[in-house]
Design goal:
The protein is of the alpha/beta class. It is 50% helix and 14% strand. The chain contains ten helices and eight strands.
């Protein structure tokens, strides 16, 4: 086994053990951890911005595009937006244990469809550091451990954010190992991660088509795919056209470099 394979095996084992514990943790404990994670981002904004400045300096020296640098860039307002995103997740109902459907067979057997955690989810993403906080919060709320592998351009930002979140969650009663960060930028570490089906249950690639295809073709783990963009705005014939104009303009122009900027406008 290579050095990466050995280290990833250990990382996967820690995530799996944490996922077993997290799957039965009460809602109140998870919500307390989410609150601590949001508070920690706010309290440690300066450290996050310092790490982000390192990434930005490397990006600019590397000649990356203005749109790419904008996706990478953090300031105090964007860190606050990440914390607010965790607050939103905290306020959502806990999906774990929810009965979706229940019925009884003619022979008297009672059947229920109940939501349970998936287990360990790996997220492979590109240059937006906010994805680290967004996905960690969503996975924790739904009782899943997470393995984060961000793009090399945001390495220092992602590592700092993931460390802050894991420490805060651990201090609030959730296994700190439920938030794992892959600590290498070398692309050679990705294939072994995508074949870690002994410990990882699902992979979600978040990025461009090339990334999604690479993950899909390499992984021995189930993958959620999205090859093409789906960011549409539909203007109905009965719409308030003045409002529609403002919405469509904002959807494309506010931040055209991000992945949820409008790609297609459909007008009745």
């Amino acid at each position: 086994m290579s050095e990466y394979e050995i280290e990833l095996e250990a990382l996967g084992k820690r995530a799996r053990a944490a996922a077993r514990r997290l799957s039965v943790i009460p809602t109140g404990v998870k919500d307390r951890a989410l609150g601590a994670m949001a508070a920690a981002l706010r309290a440690k904004t300066d450290g996050i911005l310092e790490a982000n400045r390192t990434d930005l300096e490397i990006a600019r020296k590397g000649g990356l595009s203005t749109a790419f640098v904008d996706r990478l860039y953090l300031d105090a307002k964007r860190v606050e937006t990440m914390a607010e995103g965790i607050d939103v997740v905290l306020g959502l109902p806990d999906p774990v244990g929810e009965t979706i459907r229940a019925w009884r067979r003619p022979n008297g057997m009672a059947i229920q469809k109940i939501r349970v955690p998936i287990g360990v989810i790996a997220i492979i993403y590109e240059s937006r550091p906010n994805v680290t906080a967004d996905t960690a919060a969503l996975c924790l709320k739904s009782g899943n451990a997470i393995v984060l592998r961000g793009g090399k351009e945001a390495f220092h930002s992602n590592r700092t954010i993931a460390g802050i979140l894991a420490e805060a969650a651990g201090g609030a009663g959730v296994p700190a190992d439920a938030i794992q960060f892959v600590p290498w930028t070398d692309r050679a570490a990705v294939p072994p991660l995508l074949r870690l089906d002994r410990h990882i249950d699902l992979v979600i690639p978040r990025g461009g088509e090339a990334l999604v295809r690479m993950v899909t073709e390499t992984a021995t783990i189930p993958v959620i795919q999205h090859y093409k963009g789906v960011c549409h705005v539909f203007v109905d014939r009965d719409a308030d056209l003045e409002m529609a104009e403002r919405i469509c303009f904002n959807a494309k122009v506010q931040r055209p470099g991000v992945c949820n900027a409008m790609e297609t406008m459909l007008v009745h």
